[in-house]
Specification:
A hairpin with a 5-residue loop joins strand 5 and strand 6. An eight-stranded antiparallel beta sheet has the order 18-17-20-15-14-13-16-19. The protein has 34 helices and 22 strands. It is of the alpha+beta class.
């Protein structure tokens, strides 16, 4: 049964972690081939004692760790192997990388022996026959220069592992015993016998480039990324990237970038949980190569796990704020790895200050696929910086690139002269506009706070003087929606008149003041009529001549005239005085609602609604309705209306009174009303929430909605507002819906059933 082939047919790649430079303390080779390990016949230090338990599972040999391990006073460099049949004793070295304590659960192999090198190679080939990916732990310890440094140091060099200085070899002696790089042999044999196997090396000590460039490893752990960015050795890491680009940019694709691994403290300890962590994490997600997340990194766990752990020792809980920020900032970057993983369009830039010196703490690079380009900028220092990004770092380029002349940001992003460029910062969610000439001549201006990063994408060219006006108007500021900002600039003259039309709402007790005398009412209507003419004049500058401008003005004036007729007209008075009206006011009580026609806030709302309707009269969709709704809401808030009320008003403008809801009289049609109430934005307005499996809604907001639907229906009855049969049906429907809501206990599902009967 070929497990590897079976897995690949299912779209699965099996991975195995191998540790080629040593075996476990007890292994088949320890039993059968004790000569294969680095050893001595006497303890390297006279104080060593081996009186602890026998760890061997084989009756023929005994294995004993030095006593200091058991009482935690020492970590010896060797353990004792006893042949119980012959009485022979060997002291075999534990695995060791010379940087920390020996690995007391391991036995170090002697790679000077050809038999050992061949045996390990055969094991690797055997694993490759059933595994698609092999990760080599601590692979750098088997590079020849480090293997000699650790185990057979040249005379006079000391040695990083205690007691090994006396076992040294000259360079010539070592080369005779270990002539070829072991990993180069492994890569060549794998290529010949198991070519579909991916080899991944853990290589510290700044050997990443050597492992992929000289030894041919497919992927290599990039420890420099973690260590240098953690210590903010930014200039050094910029040099690492520059050196790789000078040698061969393809090497960047082979790096495995990470913020933590099992041998290190967790990412939360290295980088914290704030802006620095997310800046480096975003850099990891946008560099070529492979981003690697450690166990517990997304959750913010701070415990360092040992290989021997069967469970965690700290009772940690997930940091949901940290997880949410990953979801908001990092996950979208991972979904765009197709832009960042390659090197064909990768370019690394110098960030230059206003004074002309290079910011060594800024990492700026662009990448892309096809016509889609993105620029990443990160400040890995607490201090804020500003400057320009224009030219790539000074590096050797091949002839093709020289001919293409792709040495500047504008050329890399495929920008051309003339017009303006709009682009988006995916992190801030804002859009910017810059003149093409500035981007080509000076580059891109940036301003970053400490540990802040930008990801700029969606570069698109626009032309036309209106975009020049927009660029000057924004003056470098970002906006959530450039299309909306374009309309605001284009509508500047119109919005001045809109603001003027809303100005009367600033009057205290506007409703009573407006209706105080016929003269005041007529004066206000005349004033608004004059402003409306200016408004339509400004609108014509945008959308061209209005064929029926005078008719539009008259229709708008008619809308504004409705308010006095609605409040003072016989229709509403007769409804309030009628038996049906009394029933309506009991079920939809005006006194309990946040704003009604009996108070100034409700009067302002209705006037603002009619004003908006008047502004739209004759223009159709030529002017953004949303802009008018927003201006009206801002005007009401600025003039002292309670924010909660104005938010409700804003919602009613956008979802009720300026929609088909009023025109189609949904109150009369139960099916349409149910459909309307099932809309997500309506349920949000109604305060719908789940509790114990039931969807509940809020009584006050529902009655407010019902009240204003009825009022809007009154307006649709025309200037006379007479108590027509249709009007009576509407009021009766509102009464029925209010009673059904009360009967349901404001259970949304039950209410839907009642109004559908």
């Amino acid at each position: 049964w070929n497990l590897k082939d079976r897995a690949q047919r299912c779209g699965i790649r099996l991975a195995v972690d191998m540790v080629p430079n040593h075996t476990g303390l007890y292994s088949r080779w320890i039993v059968e081939h004790p000569d294969w390990f680095i050893q001595t016949t006497q303890p390297p230090f006279p104080g060593y004692a081996f009186n602890g338990p026998d760890l061997s599972e084989d009756p023929g040999i005994g294995l004993f760790i030095e006593d200091g391990y058991w009482n935690r006073r020492d970590a010896a460099v060797v353990f004792k192997r006893l042949d119980k049949r012959s009485g022979e004793v060997r002291y075999i070295y534990h695995g060791n990388d010379g940087t920390h304590l020996p690995w007391n659960d391991t036995a170090q192999l002697n790679f000077l022996l050809p038999a050992v090198r061949e045996a390990v190679l055969e094991q690797i080939l055997n694993v490759a026959r059933y595994s698609s990916i092999i990760r080599f732990d601590a692979a750098m310890t088997l590079a020849k220069r480090h293997y000699q440094r650790l185990w057979f140091p040249e005379p006079g060099s000391g040695g990083d592992i205690p007691s090994r200085a006396g076992q040294g070899l000259s360079r010539q002696e070592f080369e005779r015993a270990f002539p070829a790089e072991f990993w180069r042999t492994v890569v060549d044999r794998i290529a010949a016998e198991a070519p579909q196997t991916l080899l991944l090396a853990e290589a510290f000590w700044l050997m990443e480039g050597f492992f992929v460039r000289t030894l041919g490893m497919h992927r290599v752990y990039n420890s420099a990324f973690m260590n240098m960015l953690k210590k903010e050795e930014n200039s050094n890491y910029r040099t690492v990237i520059r050196n790789v680009l000078e040698c061969n940019p393809e090497i960047l694709k082979r790096f495995v970038n990470f913020l933590s691994n099992p041998d290190e403290e967790p990412a939360a300890s290295h980088f914290g949980r704030g802006d620095k962590y997310f800046g480096v994490c975003a850099m990891m997600a946008t560099l070529p190569g492979l981003p690697l997340f450690g166990h517990g990194q997304l959750e913010g766990f701070g415990e360092k796990y040992g290989m021997e752990y069967g469970r965690s020792y700290q009772n940690e809980s997930e940091d949901y704020g940290l997880m949410e920020r990953h979801q908001r900032e990092i996950f979208p970057l991972l979904k765009k790895r197709y832009l960042f993983s390659g090197v064909d369009q990768f370019a690394f830039y110098d960030a230059v200050s206003e004074q002309g010196h290079i910011h060594s703490d800024i990492f700026a690079y662009s990448n892309g696929q096809g016509q889609e380009q993105a620029l990443f900028i990160y400040n890995n220092r607490f201090q804020s910086v500003t400057g320009w990004i224009k030219d790539t770092v000074k590096q050797r380029r091949d002839e093709n690139e020289k001919q293409a002349g792709k040495s500047s940001l504008a050329q890399r992003l495929q920008l051309t002269p003339g017009g303006w460029y709009i682009f988006r910062d995916e992190v801030l969610g804002r859009e910017y506009i810059k003149p093409a000439g500035e981007l080509l001549e000076k580059g891109l201006y940036f301003s970053l706070n400490g540990y802040q990063y930008n990801l700029l994408s969606s570069f698109r060219k626009v032309e036309g003087e209106e975009y020049g006006n927009l660029c000057r108007h924004l003056s470098g500021r970002g906006v959530p929606d450039m299309g909306r900002a374009w309309w605001e600039v284009k509508l500047a003259g119109v919005l001045i008149e809109v603001t003027e039309l809303f100005r009367p709402l600033a009057t205290a007790d506007f409703g009573r003041e407006y209706l105080a005398t016929p003269e005041k009412q007529a004066g206000l209507e005349q004033q608004q009529s004059t402003t409306l003419k200016r408004y339509f004049s400004e609108a014509e500058k945008i959308i061209g001549p209005l064929s029926a401008a005078e008719d539009a003005i008259r229709q708008a004036e008619k809308q504004l005239g409705l308010i006095s007729r609605l409040v003072n007209g016989t229709g509403l008075k007769s409804i309030r005085a009628s038996r049906l009206g009394q029933k309506y006011l009991k079920t939809v009580p005006e006194a309990e609602l946040p704003f009604t026609l009996r108070d100034d806030a409700g009067f302002k709302f209705l006037y603002a609604f009619l004003l908006q309707k008047a502004l739209r009269q004759g223009l159709g969709d030529a002017v953004s309705n949303g802009l008018f709704g927003e201006k009206a809401a801002e005007a009401l808030r600025a003039r002292g209306v309670v924010r909660y009320v104005s938010d409700q008003m804003r919602w009613l403008w956008e979802n009720l009174v300026s929609s088909e809801a009023a025109r189609d009289s949904m109150l009369e049609d139960g099916g349409k009303f149910r459909e309307f109430l099932n809309r997500p934005q309506v349920q949000e307005f109604l305060g719908c929430n789940w509790h114990q499996g039931i969807l509940w809604f809020n009584r006050e907001t529902f009655l407010t909605l019902l009240y204003w639907q009825t009022v809007v229906s009154l307006l649709e009855e025309g200037p006379g507002i007479k108590a027509s049969k249709r009007l009576l049906r509407i009021v009766n429907s509102a009464v029925r819906h209010a009673r059904a809501a009360e009967e349901s206990g404001y259970d949304h599902g039950r209410f839907m059933e009642l109004i559908g009967q």
